[in-house]
Amino acid sequence: MPHTEESLAAIADMPKVELHLHHEGAAPPAFIRGLAQEKSVNLSGVFDARGGYAFAGFERFLRTYEAATSVLQSPEDYARLTTALLEECARNGVVYVESFLSPDFCGGGDLGAWHEYLHAIRDAAERAERDMGVTLRGVVTCVRHFGPDKARLASRCAAETAGDFITGYGMGGDENAGALKDFAYSFDMAREAGLRLTVHAGEWRGPSEVRSALDDLGVHRIGHGVRAAEDPALVDRLAEAGICLELCPGSNVALGVYERLGAHPIERLRRAGVPITVSSDDPPFFHTTMRDEYLNLARTFDWDEEEFGALNRTALAHAFCDADTKKKIADRLEAP
Ligand code: MCF
Ligand code: ZN
Q1: Ligand 1 pocket member 175 (CB < 6 A)
Q2: Which residue's CA lies nearest to atom 4 of ligand 1?
Q3: In angstroms, rounded to a whole number, what is the distance separating the alpha carbons of residues 86 and 299?
Q4: What is the radius of gyration, based on Cα positions, of the chain?
Q5: Of 81, 124, 158, 185, which one's alpha carbon is 20 to 30 angstroms from that of 23?
Q6: What pairs with residue 17 in β-bridges?
Q7: Which domains are delineated in the chain?
């Protein structure tokens, strides 16, 4: 049945679980501009004429991301960022979110500073949970183009702080920078510390990259992983092994992985039984929100509330938090 205004509004308002959000990538442009003014940092080239983030293509995106992030210089800045991004989550009906946090950005890789940053972020998250009802968990994330040595430092930070807030370890960044197996040591360390694992793979590079993520790193989830759709045997493997894909369709279209949402393989992957989830990645960069993601998917693939409900249950099943937290969030998903 075609959607009505009412059915679309009901979908946009649904409680949501989001597994793939970059902490700095969620910073509203006005927030970053404000900090730049306070600190007299020149951010020329970061913003477009309308005040949004300027980028064209993936490489420029990575540079803009890192330039914008340069104004986040203290634990207090990260506390304010955490509050701002959780307010945006609350506006979008997100009840549980996992964000990627990098010790390379929070204190420049220094373990002592990482503890301070994390303390501030966690405090802000606990306040937001009380005030706005959004639960945040952190996934320590190394940056592929910073290389395996930095990744080892990030993994040490992750292992030192693994617990009920830091629940996972992962990697983002440029897929063309070094083979995944070069990062195996840092993923092994994180696994031994009890962390769950995810890696950005198969966004730009093809199915072999997704195979390597499974075989060389032993991850539980894959960030993006969309290009696995080009290999039917790999799709079957993902479905059978129950490997969750953290899909970010709006990001893929904004960065040009796919020309338009209709060409995105999300529906094919869903029908093939792969555990798929939907996230916003770096929402202000890609001019998206979780509400927009849901509305666009509903309109393009004709998904109804049942499909989105299943999507959220899948996301919660593959979330890295403990069983008590899952139970609490499950109750919120089921609430009338
Ligand atoms: O998912 C998008 C696009 N693909 C790859 N990497 C990233 C994305 N958003 C942010 N990143 C990377 C970026 O290199 O993650 C790092 C950034 O430096 C931050 S993780 C806290
Ligand atoms: Zn990402």
Answers
A1: no
A2: 173
A3: 27
A4: 19
A5: 185
A6: 96
A7: 5-27+72-330 (3.20.20.140)
Q: Catalytic one among 203, 209, 246, 293? A: 203
pTM of this structure: 0.98
| 283 pocket-lining for ligand 1 (C-beta < 6 Å) | no
What are the distances in angstroms from CA 318 to CA 79, 122, 217, 311?
Answer: 27, 22, 17, 11
Q: How far is residue 241's CA from residue 33's CA, in Å, rounded to a whole number?
A: 44
Q: Is 249 in the pocket of ligand 1 (CB under 6 A)?
A: no
pLDDT digits (tens, 9 = 90+) for 171-227: 999 999 999 999 999 999 999 999 999 999 999 999 999 999 999 999 999 999 999
Measured in Å, residue 336 CA sits from the centre of ligand 2 at 32
CA 147 to centroid of ligand 2, rounded, Å: 17
Q: List Cα–Cα distances, 36 to 77, 121, 126, in angstroms.
A: 11, 20, 27
Q: pLDDT by residue (tens digit) across 63-110?
A: 999 999 999 999 999 999 999 999 999 999 999 999 999 999 998 878
- Which DSSP helix (H) or strand (E) runs through 276? strand 276-278
Q: Is 203 a catalytic residue?
A: yes
**Half-sphere exposure (Cβ direction) of 102: Cα atoms closer than 13 Å:** 23
